[in-house]
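ABC transporter domain-containing protein
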Amino acid sequence: MSEQEEQYTVRAKGITKNFQLFSTQAEKLKSIFKGNTDAADFWALRGINFDIEPGDVVGIVGTNGSGKSTLLNILSGVIPQTSGTLEINGSIGVVAINEGLNWDLTGRENIRLKQLMMGMTNKEIDAAMPDIIEFSELGEFIDQPVKDYSSGMRSKLGFSIVTHNDPDILIVDEALSVGDQNFSKKALGKIREFIAQGKTIFFVSHDLEQVREFTNKVMWIQYGEMRDFGATKKVADEYQAFTAKLDQMSEEERTAFVNTEKNQQQLFTIEQLQDQFAIQKVPEDEVREVTKLRSFEGFNSFSLWVSLLLIIGLMVLVIMRGYGR
Ligand SMILES: Nc1ncnc2c1ncn2[C@@H]1O[C@H](COP(=O)(O)OP(=O)(O)OP(=O)(O)O)[C@@H](O)[C@H]1O
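Structure:
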């Protein structure tokens, strides 16, 4: 890696995410075996580029359905991007309302499971357990199954586990919006500690005042496109002006605006991304790398495995017939 690239904790180039809108379960199943379907394409992300430096605290804003959670899910590896490249230098911890907890296990069992997945030994987990339970404020509910928790309780447990793991990059997706005020205050205190340690933080919140207070950069995502990315004050002001304009629209105007944007998300093609790169004069081989479609790679390897299994099956049949004579 070159010296210039080392200064980034996260670098995203041309990230797209395509969801296929299946009308029935049968259509979805058919797509797994046949690969191609007639389902409509929907591009939740349409070419996202950014560089995040160590110590950046990035607020991600955008109206409902703009693609914030989709981007965070790609960053944290929960879902793959359809195309584009992502470089991540460091461990990632995610706190989100419904992130990563097993609902059938108790809070205590979830703590153990998550820590084991992080590579901790049972002895280390036993030592860390009291601190995590105390921070979560769950008291005796820690031995109840998570499915019986409220969303605020799940958020408290998730936040306590993840921050205790001390990740290099912390992703907080709306998790603080469901906890009670006292816990939110304590959680924000923990985030302040992380900021002081120079960690990289992604912070999704619909509370623009919170975003202004905690972040140094803001990423504004609008229906899958990056509208702006830069210093908090500038981008937060722009976003606030946009939402004020949306609020002033009549219901018909707003519906027409949203429909036009959503329509563009269905009509998007990878070629548009290539046009965008041409304007930015991105080298040819880099464009090829960035626009590689993962879903087709997945399909190719799937077909390869099916073919291999068929060949092995045929060979076994031939051998067995030979023995039968
Ligand atoms: N699995 C999926 N299949 C089809 N469409 C999806 C899927 N997941 C998300 N989407 C669509 O992608 C778009 C972006 O969704 P996402 O949840 O990322 O938005 P968001 O900005 O986080 O919204 P909010 O502020 O409401 O949480 C939405 O239009 C959503 O309907």
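The longest strand covers residues 40-52.
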